[in-house]
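Proteins fold reproducibly. Consider a sample protein:
=====
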Amino acid sequence: MLLNRKATGLACGIIWAVIIFFIGLAGAFGLARDTVNFIAEFYVGFGPTLEGSLIGMIWAFLEGFVIGYLYAWIYNFFARKEEEL
């Protein structure tokens, strides 16, 4: 069975974006400040505000999509090689 690269990328992107969004919102309420500061080092514009959470959500979606897409591509590559054996 092969994975659909676009669907896997979208699923990973959406999941990661939602997680980062809620981490940013938690930071807005004074929770997870260290985590927010750490993530902000990688996602420009991310911060413990609603606006910062939305910016982080966009970055996270892009990163999650790329990682999910690459994961499916690599998986499919090896799954095809296994079928050839």
Observations:
- The chain is about 80% helix and 0% strand.
- The chain has a mean pLDDT of 96.
- The helical segments are 5-28, 33-40, 50-84.
- The chain has one domain: 5-84.
